[in-house]
Amino acid sequence: MTEPTRNQEAENRPSALKGTYCLVTGATSGIGKEIARGLVTAGAHLLFVCRDRTRGEATLAELNRCSRDPFVRMVVADLSSLLEVRRAAEEIHRHLPRLDVLVNNAGTHDLRPAVSADGFDRMIATNHLGPFLLTNLLTDLLELGAPSRIVMVASEAHRSVVHIDPRTFADPGSYGPVGSLSVYARSKLLNVLVTQEIARRWTTRGITANAFCPGLVSTGLTRNIPMGSTLFSLAERSPLVRNAREGAEQALCLAGDPRFTGRSGGFYSTTPGAVLLPPSIHRFRPGLQRAVWERSEELVALP
User: Fold this and answer.
1) Alpha carbon 65 to chain centroid, angstroms
2) CA dihedral sign, ordered 106, 109, 114, 115
3) Residue 276, CB half-sphere, CA atoms under 13 Å: how many?
4) Side by side, which strands form the sheet with 267-269?
5) Cα(96)–Cα(118) distance, integer angstroms
6) What are the structural domains, with CATH classification, of the chain?
7) How far is CA 47 from CA 102, 128, 208, 223, in A?
8) Lower CB density within 10 Å: C or N end of the chain?
């Protein structure tokens, strides 16, 4: 199937997203804020989840100014805490009659290991377990919005993972700035594996899921990459590094472009030359994807 051009994407999104109910995590800065902005300017009803109330209120006021509709809501929650995720899901149910689009964008890159409130590596808890639990707790709203879409913000970093153990992927460990890159890559591979498992489990329920890499984007996340701020500041005027608005473009396409209707389990990358790279071998291991899903269910205490 021919991929839509950028002009076609811009033309298709407003009509497709107008009146939809959308949720974005991590929407107070960077790509998340630009995804949220793109949704509300296209006429969507928006609810976003953020960790910091002060930044959230500033974002809420900003989005209301550019919204075509007064329905913009905020829920405050730290996705690394399963208790807060459950509380957030309850609050989301009070706000939304259904959910047409869920964008799992929130993520972190910790240079040093930290343990979440539930005893997991905090980076894995924030980037994978929290979004996994939230997505599962919102399944009923996604079914009410069917055909609904899940958009997972992943990364090309997932290709670098050679081995992943479904039993121990969330265990706390010891690592420094360089070692943190492998943990971050693991969390992004988990995003991709879950996306593919959703495609197998939920497509018959009218729910599709796709993951994407926004490319090299100069956002606050680069501050937590070894020498990230320095390297990105040097490269941000080159074609290799994008701004947050450009990084959000693929997410908005997956969320609203009619050409992606019914398409599920894909990984899309906007990184130049990525199409020439071999895909991760783990994307072709259904047994691993199922094992990661079932272990994640155990860790977040889903029935």
Assistant:
1) 25
2) positive
3) 3
4) 72-76, 45-50, 21-25, 101-104, 148-153, 207-213, 267-269
5) 28
6) 6-226+244-299 (3.40.50.720)
7) 10, 20, 20, 27
8) C
Could you tell me if 147 and 262 are in contact, meaning their C-beta atoms sit under 8 angstroms apart? yes
At 156, which amino acid appears? E
Q: Which residues pair with 150 in a beta bridge?
A: 102, 209
Rounded CA-CA distance 168/261 in Å is 35
Q: Shortest CA distance to 37 belongs to which of 249, 303, 264, 274?
A: 249
**Rounded Cα–Cα distance for residues 226 and 232 (Å):** 11
The CA distance from 162 to 196, in Å, is: 18
The torsion angles phi and psi of 242, rounded to 5 degrees, stand at -110, 160
Distance CA 128, CA 190 (A): 7
Question: What distance, in Å, lies between the first and last C-alpha atoms of the chain?
Answer: 38
Question: pTM (2 decimals)?
Answer: 0.89
Three-state DSSP class for residue 152: strand
Q: Percent of the chain beyond pLDDT 70? A: 84
Beta bridge partners of residue 241, listed in sequence order: 216
Taking the C-alpha atoms of residue 258 and residue 82, their distance in angstroms, rounded to an integer, is: 34
Give Cα separations from 205 to 44, 159, 263 (angstroms).
23, 30, 14
Q: What is the pLDDT of residues 35-84, one digit of tens each?
A: 999 999 999 999 999 999 999 999 999 999 987 666 899 999 999 999 99
Q: What interhelical angle do 179-202 and 130-137 show, nearest 10?
A: 20
Q: Which two tokens stand for residue 217?
A: 């984007």
